[in-house]
Amino acid sequence: MSIEFNQDRNYDIIAIGRACIDLNAAEYNRPMEETMTFTKYVGGSPANIAIGSSKLGLKAGFIGKIPNDQHGNFIKQYMSEVGIDTSNMVVDQEGHKAGLTFTEIKSPEECSILMYREDVADLYLNPDEVNEDYIKQSKILLVSGTALAKSPSREAVIKAVSLARKNDVKVIFELDYRPYTWASKEETAIYYSLIAEQSDVVIGTRDEYDMMENLEEGEGNNEATVNYLFNHSPELLVIKHGVDGSYAYTKSGDVYRGLAYKTQVLKTFGAGDSYASAFLYAIVNGKDIETALKFGSASAAIVVSKHSSSEAMPTVEEIESLIAQQG
Amino acid sequence: MSIEFNQDRNYDIIAIGRACIDLNAAEYNRPMEETMTFTKYVGGSPANIAIGSSKLGLKAGFIGKIPNDQHGNFIKQYMSEVGIDTSNMVVDQEGHKAGLTFTEIKSPEECSILMYREDVADLYLNPDEVNEDYIKQSKILLVSGTALAKSPSREAVIKAVSLARKNDVKVIFELDYRPYTWASKEETAIYYSLIAEQSDVVIGTRDEYDMMENLEEGEGNNEATVNYLFNHSPELLVIKHGVDGSYAYTKSGDVYRGLAYKTQVLKTFGAGDSYASAFLYAIVNGKDIETALKFGSASAAIVVSKHSSSEAMPTVEEIESLIAQQG
Amino acid sequence: MSIEFNQDRNYDIIAIGRACIDLNAAEYNRPMEETMTFTKYVGGSPANIAIGSSKLGLKAGFIGKIPNDQHGNFIKQYMSEVGIDTSNMVVDQEGHKAGLTFTEIKSPEECSILMYREDVADLYLNPDEVNEDYIKQSKILLVSGTALAKSPSREAVIKAVSLARKNDVKVIFELDYRPYTWASKEETAIYYSLIAEQSDVVIGTRDEYDMMENLEEGEGNNEATVNYLFNHSPELLVIKHGVDGSYAYTKSGDVYRGLAYKTQVLKTFGAGDSYASAFLYAIVNGKDIETALKFGSASAAIVVSKHSSSEAMPTVEEIESLIAQQG
Amino acid sequence: MSIEFNQDRNYDIIAIGRACIDLNAAEYNRPMEETMTFTKYVGGSPANIAIGSSKLGLKAGFIGKIPNDQHGNFIKQYMSEVGIDTSNMVVDQEGHKAGLTFTEIKSPEECSILMYREDVADLYLNPDEVNEDYIKQSKILLVSGTALAKSPSREAVIKAVSLARKNDVKVIFELDYRPYTWASKEETAIYYSLIAEQSDVVIGTRDEYDMMENLEEGEGNNEATVNYLFNHSPELLVIKHGVDGSYAYTKSGDVYRGLAYKTQVLKTFGAGDSYASAFLYAIVNGKDIETALKFGSASAAIVVSKHSSSEAMPTVEEIESLIAQQG
């Protein structure tokens, strides 16, 4: 089975949501208190996916709000340089700042982050800054769950999804759950289900699906999730189980399993975004689901062995070479 | 055509949203500045509809949040006395107050209101205060648009609608647009369409449908509205055109027109709520759409000739007698 | 001892702070739940004091912010009609409403109130709406403690006090403590001491002085209070002990006691404001402290026997007649 | 003339206000967009002054609120290591973050900063976290103007100043004006004058005094400032005029001028804080005002030639050596 995309479009993928700044520990294998230098990268799940997709050759665009400062300039410039269309990235005029993520890399198993997400520019994207004329030029609208955390970004996303459905643009929902800025788990579940029910493809970890279903972590199971969501719009669900690999379910009843690739893990950040961009690259290029799962896993394996999430996004050759090595 | 309700239910209708206080000018035909005395009534569109329905003999329940003060006590007591089940009316524990509406009755044509809606208790209804076990006991969930204006009440309503759909409860959406507390027209349009698309019946004035479609007042037309909403869940739409009467459209393509009854107008408040309660009474009791339109109009004609919105709700006999007189 | 006022001034007193709406139970001796009618009056401590002073013949002015609605119009009109200069009452342009106080009169001993103070217009008075040219025309600046509860009204009052001191205007601080809108007792104590230390006269109940000193109710004593405040600007302190009467202390070491007058109590509201206006009337007119205490008590005795706080403010004749009767 | 300090105290100086994180461009002489690496330092005016004072040999303590995260840990650890007593640094329990300052060093003349000050921990210092027993152990309470920008930190500072005055602790007010987080210039002026009037020593640039006096930049003059503040508590005023040097005025009428030292400027950050710490060191050690002005200028000259504000704070030997060289 493969997803049918509308071929007559200028963009393969338009992502909507946050584009932020990562400040990654330059000295690692130590607590952040002892890290004295930080390296700056563009970050944020949908920005990373757009960057990853663009590096793989997809034609990507981005809808989001960036600050009117040096960090905002850097974000736009960087994304533009990797080939992303930034014409719909709006510059905030009210003094909101870029989200920041300081990473702490104590060891490959112990990574933590320190987030600055208070009143950040990306959550101030307004519905009237979402343009139908832009969205309808794309095969895919990629929605990041975090963009639903607060108004008015929440309404901007609800509007974007509505416009995508009206214009036959596939809605791909990356659950991308981050506890910051959500008022409660119940609120998260309400908006996650609302958008998941209206999406064509949903991608997330098992824990994120539990969140969407308002279950305690570990309470959910794939069968129930599949039964629930295939009663609505989705035709493909990807559920990731960490080191146990990932599963893809199709509405027609097929199940596929993808396995994780062996790699030298430096840190765990960026795994999900690199997975999503390679998976999307594969399905947009008409590859079958099994191959797409391999692309996702190979891409993730490459990124977790490197220092950044965005800068480290692999090329098609690197992915194919890893698949060729490990099968 | 008539709507099919699930007959095996304890309640005919459960309304969700605000129950507030009306303070109606005791001395009228003058500006409010000169009104020195105000009479207290229960108010708020969904509360009025529940009260009106109950007085007509429907079995009604209510989901909402009321303040922990004398006004909250009065609201609950009054609603209970007219026969409404108040077991799911939650008492606020955070000091929020009841919404207030002072009415000014300068003349039958010049009525205005002065609203207190800042941080009112009803907008603090939480999603976890909405119970599936309660909603599934009803034939109808009546949703008032104003309850969508702010979080967490907004999410409580989205959850209630989702539970109603899951449990075969008809969702009836009274648009009930009030500019207060909405952040913008665009935000209103986003949530109004979201809920309208998931409802079985939508009732509103032409202006309110324009708001839902994010159009300027007067820009919309019934044909476009009907085309849009019948692509989604609704099976019946009622669009009210003031003195020109109201139209009912069915998904099967029928159109009915209801005319306004002559009456001695004292003030215009309460017309919409009395209309909705009598219309719902009629369709729950299996009357045809034409008769339901007459019930709505007759009920409205009676209420606008009296001083209050809630207290003045008519009986079936009064409605039938007016219909018998004027046809 | 008597206070020396600058005689060369247009106004005897300019009050700063809130002017609101009282909605007094028209049917009383019952819980508010059973009160169906409310009578409207102007209310709010500094407004009442200005009204009371004006009815006694003082030339009064008012600095405050009122809503741009029917309640705001009524407040300004009423105050103007009793002779208060309203040229420095600013009309709010941001949709803030008048504060409301619903009174419940169960019995003379059991009175309670239900306040609407959320985002009210009076707390939005801006520092730049306080004019030096106005303040310097007065003998007295009367400051109400409640106006310190929130920014920007807090800063407007701090500025007004600073301008009064600069221009030899006596600052009279009515503590007027209301728990609503204050963030904490500690915050209250900080601003109450700040202003009390800069005032010439402080008037309050023993409980209010406890609040100013950040003590638990009942912990404070007059001696400590007097020692503390006479180290700063005040020259006269009035401390009220309810039915036990009131004490006046002067910086020169004199102590006076005033006794309460017998009266037929209807409700307790308005006692403090009527006390303050008659006390101020007396000291402005050069009466000695003992007589001023009698004026205050007599005025309070008259107001608590009547239905309103503002409308019921007595004339000089009524006060003198009561003093003549009871001594 | 020299300031008399209470000699019987455990601490020379206790500073109150913010302790934050500076992220200084590791690659400089370029716009921040092109800076890819940032070096972490402790920052924030009162923290820098405490660090500078401590490195000069004063016994310093600090009152402030730090986040419960890696940045908070680093701040406390660093300050403790340079010898500051951190027993009154409170760890925030509500998720507030450390303020951040990214510095951009385009050239010695073109330095700008990018601040993260939204809901930062330091502005959440509560009045009840300010302890009289601690403050009364110090000769000096150093107050930073920025700590007045928002409640509850504002009230914590007002309380600290009141406790200092009560306990014969000299209040030294570093105006330290930062536009961020202040609601308006008028609000700034109100709180700046309030605290300046209650201080013993005030230190600031001419522009900062203009802000305190609610004047446009450049409108103020030292004579008017001196006339105004010497009517209140201050006995010493330092007014800095950038490259034109600084002036010290004493209540007794003396005026001293200090000149700037020649140096190789790398960036302008940190000049004010290093000035204040060396000036305070000098006056605490009984040096005369002229010498104190030299200490301030020499310390500033050293810090602007180095990369950080805190880490670069000089020793007494370095300062004396520069004075010896340039006189």
Give keywords.
homotetramer, 327 residues, alpha/beta, UDP-N-acetylmuramoyl-L-alanine:D-glutamate ligase, nine-stranded mixed beta sheet, four-stranded mixed beta sheet, 10 helices, 13 strands, 23% strand
Most extensive interface:
A-D, 25 and 25 residues
How confident is the prediction overall: mean pLDDT of chain A? 95
Largest sheet of chain A: 9 strands, mixed
Runs of chain A in which pLDDT lies below 50 for 5 or more consecutive residues are none
Descriptive notes:
Four copies of one chain form a homotetramer. Chain A is 33% helix and 23% strand. Chain A is of the alpha/beta class and 327 residues long. The first copy, chain A, has a single domain, classed as UDP-N-acetylmuramoyl-L-alanine:D-glutamate ligase. The longest helix of chain A is centred in the last third of the chain and has 15 residues, at 289-303. The first copy, chain A, is globular, with a radius of gyration of 18 Å. Chains A and D meet through β3, α2 and β6 of A and β3, α2 and β6 of D. Chains A, B, C, D: Its EC number is 2.7.1.92.
